[in-house]
Amino acid sequence: MSELIIAYAAPPEAATHAALGAALASLAAKPDNPLPHLRQALSRRQAQALQADEDGEFSFSMPHERAWARAMGWPEAQAGQLPLAAWEARQRGLSTGSAWAWVSPCHWAVGTQQVVLETPEQLELSAAESQQLLASVRTLLADVGIQLHFVHAHGWLAEGDLFRQVRTAAMERAAGRDVAIWLPAGEAGRPLRRLQSELQMFLYNDPATEAMTEARRAQGQRSVNSFWFSGTGALPAQPEAVDDAPTQPPASPPELHQDWREAALSNDLQAWARGWLRLDDEIGQGRLPEHAVLTLCGERAYRRWHPATQTPKATGRWSQRIGQGLQTLFSQRPKTDSLAWSTVTQDL
Prior knowledge:
By secondary structure, the chain is α+β, with helices and mostly antiparallel strands. It folds into two domains: about 180 residues, no CATH class; about 150 residues, no CATH class. Strands 1, 2, 3, 9, 10 and 11 form a six-stranded mixed β-sheet that branches. Strands 4, 5, 6, 7 and 8 form a five-stranded antiparallel β-sheet that branches. Strand 6 and strand 7 form a beta hairpin. Helix 1 packs across helix 11 and helix 2 crosses helix 11. The longest helix has 16 residues.
């Protein structure tokens, strides 16, 4: 492992951040030191400057997606144009020269003033239902040059030139929010927005889909009434250097830890805190090698910690800020706001 990237390391709101810190302290065996192995890992590394998009939590790309792309040596891309689906396609032995997207069956809850996206996980869609949906829409999408590949119940891979230039928002950005500001962006996104509308009308009128919808409603489950496109683009031909990112793909790809995704989306602080405690135990058991970079990501930004011998110390105001943080981090006084976790994640 070259780098361990922790997604959903902290919530974006200060009040929720404090509540999660309190949950950590209440569940830990030693409340005044709930994450001892994280503390030790950070003490052996040097913090780098915070990396954030101008749009913060309104960026189309999640910080952990940005961090992962950087670690892979991908060229800097506009938010919403990280070819994550194309990378997955390559891993599965599919065409590498094409543009790809993730397609996720989902439910749009229509209110009086907004339309809110509910995730595929909230639908509890089965693999059989998802495959039935794919079979239903396959011909419609093939007519516009899109080929579908089933991956799992909550997501398919789609191949087509329509995805080459369009910016799409991560599912996690739009989940639980009004979809209006998260739809495929700009003039390049117009064909994909139109396709979404056509798919919605198809789902409403298709007899096979209607039968599945009625069966789900009889069981108290929501219908699939739309799809979400994300991770669009084609893989870059060559990695490039970005600050301290590699100029070649790393010998071992960075590990992306996303185990807290559901806890973060549902704001389940207890599950989130338990996840942190499990990870801390795993770090103590060797999950984070001494030579590996540690990256913590929130909704707005990410920060990397390099092994102390790999990079010069941070300078300027960041050095002062990090120094103050570490002073609190290694304080042995009780009630230090969950110590390691709260100190190092407050800006994420």
